[in-house]
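Subgroup meeting minutes
Present: P.N., E.W., G.H.
Scribe: E.W.

1. P.N. recapped why we're keeping a running log of single-chain structure predictions: easier to compare across weeks, and new members can see raw inputs and outputs side by side.
2. G.H. added today's entry (258 aa).
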Amino acid sequence: MMKSFNALSLIPIWIASVSGGKDSLMMLKIILENLDKFPLHGVVHFELEIDMPFIKDVIDYMETECKKYNIPFYRVKPTVTWEELYNKYHFPSRVARWCNDKYKLSAKKEFVKYCKNLGYNVNFYIGYCLNEEKRYVNRPFNERYPLVEEGIYEDYILEWAKNVPLFKDYYKYNRRCGCYLCPMISNINLAWLLKYYPDKYSYFLNKVDDSEKYFTKKLGKEYYFRSNYKIDYLDYLIRKKYLPLIESGSKSSQISFL
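Output recorded in log:
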């Protein structure tokens, strides 16, 4: 039987929530270098099957760094797989982004519930930057934003990230890192995926193609992932127009970053 707790009886702890992107990596660096200012009881990564492939290497690195400080590191998977949700809803769209509430947030809810059952009240460090006011103004009292507190802007982190080998040149062409099966994914992002992870690119195309066929049949009219052309033409654009832009880019230099 699940225990119930009075909120005041719970022990407060601070957990750094890390996605494996540039902002969370910089945030963790700052926290570990300033543990007197940012007390840290653990680090959590909500592990998604649809993370950009390089994220695993970044998370492995983060865990190694945390071990040096004896900081517990948790990897939490959603309670349902992306494939299971895809089989029910098909590929998410810009309008119906089920991948957020039904998939990503389920892992966070389970982690908070797990900690509460152990008698802990979780407070989170989140990697918002100083210039992202809309993301952190009027946010919950149980969150802190080390990058904001340290006065760090996203552009500063972006320039730094371009030369971090773990990111595999991703931030030379993209400001933010989302999931590779995202309905909001950009063409240049897809070209980067094609160059570095062609198997993931093919998987993306297959899922979108299947969904286009399904909704075309269901709606009785042509359904497009992009508003004005089908996925086969998107593939043509990626290979002929955007991939050459990625292939002509210069390699990042090797630097130490933590």
